[in-house]
Design a protein that fits this description.
Distance between the termini: 28 Å
Number of helices: 19
Radius of gyration: 22 Å
CATH architecture: Up-down Bundle
Helix content: over 70%
Order of helices and strands: HHHHHHHHHHHHHHHHHHH
Number of domains: 1
Largest sheet: none
Structural class: mainly alpha
Number of strands: 0
Strand content: under 5%
Length: 514
């Protein structure tokens, strides 16, 4: 099925039909965002609100359906199939694999929302009949936070990762989004249809990661203000983005094994240190028993939460939270999906699905419980007012929280380092994926091309921050989430067709040989 797709140009092993439209679109968007900021913000804001209002239910239905599909595939007769040769072993150890999963997935987001989200829902519960700042509000706040960062979020990542890995490692197709649609498009994946799919995936990846780099810069800015007394400023945010870009470029030069892998392993240990510190100095018994109860509550309430659309409440809370999260996460799906596929060769489908869904979900359960329960305990039992600061500026929530605990400077500096490394690994792994999308499959990854895309990510984030365009970018990625949502459904259909056809072919071959 492999096919020569392009000639090398300017020394790059890139596909011009993907590289130039994607790079040109990003540059054009930056210019428009700076030149017509208000008009562009209004346009994408209107598109986003229209999509959320009339198709919010669609996001909820699709993501929950895909979760059921993944679990069915894992426990079906297809689960024993290996992503690679039948005798192939996993390319990375389970520890390294999980560290890279977490670092490239939602590590930065957990640092940003670990305190802010549970506290937000505790103060303003979305469910009817729940009294704000009550015990019921606390339980529901943890349920909702786990719903937003648990199995559903990782479903959005794991579905494309599984499909890409299956077609790449068992059918020898390029490690790109377009390869997933081979059963539907055939050889047309090597033409305009395939180029269009990969270009959209590339642009969505760059925008989605730029949002995270921008949010991370805001949080680091707040942390530097809290720890060192720096005045919050746009200049400081740009310096942070420049530093992240520089370190990411260095990681690119070192490569996957010496760069992303080592940074991810170091950072998962640092993140664990921060979490264990909060666990030990916080209400330890409350946290420990709360983790167990939160797991039970999450599993018990997952069926109704998975299909809850506010239909009988007539409110719009879900548009600002659940639907926004799904749309934003979907814009990340090509990037995280390809990256997970790249590091998952050699695992069986069952190992892959259960590992990539289960391990991050359990880590998220513990993380959100440790930070969320401690923050809620401060409000409920300690008389500490965190909610005012969270409502004023969610970026500073983590550091305001840490300053209520012992050794605030040490824990804040460590948290700053964790956030910085998470941003670096996100930018580096995104550049790796973008390079994979834009180059020929029969050529090795070129450092210069990956450095170019890393610089593009940094430049996009910095330009939009300096132009006040981050809200515009958030609206763009949420608007792009809708077509990606449809693509995810088509991926599931394509994978289902391929699995069935391959099984029938295997059965027929065995009958002939018998």
């Amino acid at each position: 099925m492999m096919k020569n797709q392009s000639n090398r140009f300017w020394g790059f092993s890139a596909i011009p039909q993907i590289f130039f439209p994607a790079a040109g679109f990003v540059l054009l968007f930056i210019v428009l965002a700076l030149s017509f900021q208000d008009s562009l913000a209004d346009f994408f804001g209107a598109v986003g609100q229209f999509t959320f209002r009339y198709f919010g239910w669609f996001y909820v239905l699709v993501v929950s359906t895909l979760l059921i599909f993944l679990l069915w595939v894992a426990f079906s007769s297809y689960g024993h199939l290996r992503l690679g040769r039948d005798d192939e072993l996993p390319a990375y150890s389970t520890r390294s694999w999980f560290a890279m999963l977490f670092a490239a997935g939602i590590g930065t987001i957990l640092m940003f929302w670990g305190v802010a989200e549970p506290l937000s829902h505790f103060v303003n519960p979305p469910l009817a009949g729940v009294e704000p700042e009550s015990l019921d509000a606390a339980r529901n706040a943890m349920n909702i936070a786990l719903y937003h960062f648990g199995l559903h979020t990782w479903t959005i990542f794991v579905l494309p990762a599984l499909a890409i890995a299956y077609f790449s490692y068992r059918h020898d197709l390029p490690l790109r989004i377009s390869s997933v649609f081979y059963p539907l498009l055939g050889e047309r994946i090597y033409g305009p249809a395939g180029w269009a799919i990969d270009t959209i995936a590339l642009v969505g990846t760059l925008f989605g990661v730029s949002v995270s780099v921008g949010l991370g810069a805001l949080q680091i800015n707040s942390g530097l203000t809290a720890v060192f007394g720096f005045q919050p400023s746009q200049a400081l945010q740009l310096i942070v983005v420049a530093l992240v870009t520089l370190v990411a470029c260095l990681s690119v030069v070192l490569g996957l094994d010496r760069g992303i892998k080592r940074l991810s392993e170091i950072n998962i240990m640092l993140a664990l240190m921060v979490m264990l510190f909060v666990w030990l100095v916080g209400p330890t018994l409350f946290i420990t028993s709360g983790i167990v109860q939160n797991f039970g509550n999450y599993m018990q309430n997952l069926p109704w939460m998975a299909f809850w659309t506010e239909a009988y409440q007539g409110t719009s809370w879900q548009q600002s939270w659940t639907v926004f999260y799904w749309a934003w996460t979907i814009s990340w799906a090509p990037y995280v999906g390809i990256f997970i596929a790249r590091i998952s060769r050699g695992r069986t489908i069952k190992q892959f699905v259960l590992g990539a869904l289960g391990a991050p979900m359990l880590f998220t359960l513990i993380w959100m419980s440790v930070f969320g329960i401690t923050a809620i305990d401060m409000e409920l039992n300690k008389g500490i007012d965190l909610k005012t600061q969270v409502q004023a500026d969610v970026a500073v929530a983590l550091f305001d929280f840490l300053y209520q605990l012992p050794l605030p400077i040490l824990s804040s500096v460590l948290s700053l380092l964790v956030i910085l490394i998470f941003l670096t690994t996100s930018a580096d792994s995104a550049a790796l994926v973008i390079d994979q999308l834009s180059r020929r499959n029969d050529q090795h990854s070129q450092v210069l091309l990956r450095v170019f895309w890393t610089l593009m990510i940094g430049t996009t984030a910095a330009t939009l921050l300096s132009g006040g365009g981050l809200p515009v970018l958030q609206n763009v990625v949420t608007a792009l989430g809708f077509p990606f949502c449809i693509l995810l459904l088509l991926m599931a259909i394509s994978l289902y067709q391929a699995l069935g056809r391959d099984q029938r072919h295997s059965t027929h071959s065995k009958q002939l040989s018998g």
